[in-house]
Amino acid sequence: MEHITLLLAIVVVTALVFDFTNGFHDTANAMATTISTGALKPKTAVAMSAVLNLIGAFLSVEVAKTISGGIINEEGIRTEVIFAALVGAILWNLLTWLLGLPSSSSHALFGGLIGAAVMSAGWAAVNGSTIVTKVLIPAVAAPLVAGLAAMFAAKLTYRINANPEAKATAKGYRAGQIASAGLVSLAHGTNDAQKTMGIITLALVTQGVVAPGSNPPLWVVVSAGVAIALGTYLGGWRIIRTMGKGLTDLQPQQGFAAQTSAATVILASSHLGFSLSTTQSCSGAVMGAGLGRKGGVVRWSTATRMFVAWGLTLPAAGLVGAGAEFLTKQGPWGIAAVAVLLVAGSAVIWSLSRRKPVDHHNVTADDLDAADAEPAGVVTTAIAAVTPPPAGSVAAVTDEDLKATILTPAPTDPTAPPAPAAKV
Prior knowledge:
The protein has helices at about 5-25, 25-35, 40-55, 60-70, 80-100, 105-120, 130-160, 165-205, 220-235, 235-245, 250-270, 280-290, 300-330, 330-355, 375-385, 400, and strands at about 405, 420-424. The chain is mostly helical. The longest helix has about 40 residues, at about 165-205.
């Protein structure tokens, strides 16, 4: 700790700020479906997720080692590069949070890191093979695998419980949702908290505090775990609303299938050192579970906006990171200018978010405003029109309900009184 300079201290603090934004940006991954189906109250859900994120941060360091010694070449990288990368990642996280889009915090970090490294030392500073095998391929495969697994799991649950007692089944699946949501939170801490550990460790390597290839020091693990847990507790309510209400309408069975599938994919990737996006995995699982119920639909207009955000994350954060690195190369005044721009940009985004605040009081409200509401679309409307109602939803019909009142024809004599209505 005695070797930490002022610049390194600024980078460490900025990395923990990114970790904090990662926490509230990705709370929806674990808790959106649990909150939307009513399995847990909003504040209870985020508190539970925060604790499990903290615990998950201590379970592994494989992803942290991928970040600190795999994506870019450590030799010749200046500490300012890490600072510039974090600026790009934080601003993209805040912008997508403002828009309620569940984009990838991981890819924002990777994009900022790649852009800043290229601006600093050229393309030779980037390990292209590692990016392809441990970032890009998992980015494509994870949502597909999680989505297919969730779709088949949801179909299986409905097939097994074809004619159950609705109330008892819903209660059982809500309990399962709570358990699976806890598993997702644990997996999120295991995967995403390590990304900040890796970036701080990389900064320590650039300053010669630790040797290349070292595991994150204990104080780095603890601080990263605490930062992501605090961010998780605040709750990214805007993104929770999108994932819980905007993508599809989930029943407890689907929520359980989505979360279990996503947790399995995330934990497996953490064990293998794949730094995938938990956001993309969970979003893919939610869409898959939405299609797993007969008559279930996905709001593809919302999904399309989300896909566009996914595609823009790496290049957009990379451009901001490169621009920030261009300024930091100018000297101390450039570093100060980047810090001021980061604070000013964050303040502007925060003030814009206060115009239409979303919190735990209205996160599950159905009265979305015009900007948030998504039209059902032709395909969705057609599917919903021909889908039979679920079993047990039609009330019993009595003889009295089948009776109708039919008016008799008007009499030809205008002076004659009208005939009484006939009861059929």
